[in-house]
Design brief:
This protein has a single domain (about 30-115), classed as Chorismate mutase (Chorismate Mutase Domain, subunit A, Up-down Bundle), CATH 1.20.59.10. Helix content is about 75%, strand content about 0%. It contains five helices and no strands. The chain has helices at about 1-5, 20-25, 30-65, 75-90, 95-115. The longest helix is centred in the middle third of the chain and has 36 residues, at about 30-65.
Length: about 120
């Protein structure tokens, strides 16, 4: 391995880290950069949707406060997570992983509802 890092006279030569090479697009298989770009677009959309969900949760919190309801609704939260698991199975995605993500989304939404209290 040392030989791969040394030049002719035994001097160390710079070997780019995989992450550095990947960000420059050097040595990447054809189409990989485009696929990564598509994934980044999906990530942007996911973050936009999460922000939209949080904004909706704030509105739900306002309505609940006006109605004298508590922000915490464990039965509703569990139903949302169960439904997400069902949708995941239909989509061919791990329902366990999706339920995990949804518990975090619900926590984020609950905190947003409680911000106004």
């Amino acid at each position: 391995m040392r030989a791969a890092r040394e030049g002719r006279e035994g001097e160390a030569r710079r070997v780019p880290a995989p992450a550095q090479a990947a960000t420059r697009g050097e040595g990447l298989p054809a189409g990989l950069e485009e696929l990564r770009g598509a994934i980044e677009a999906i990530d942007r959309e996911l973050v936009r949707l999460i922000a939209e969900r949080v904004a909706m949760a704030r509105q739900v919190g306002t309505v609940k406060r006006k109605a004298g309801m508590p922000a915490l609704d464990p039965a509703r939260e569990a139903a949302v997570v169960r439904h997400a698991g069902h949708l995941a199975r239909q989509a061919g995605v791990s329902d366990e992983d999706v339920r995990y993500i949804f518990w975090h989304l619900i926590g984020l939404s609950r905190r947003a509802q409680m911000e106004e209290e």
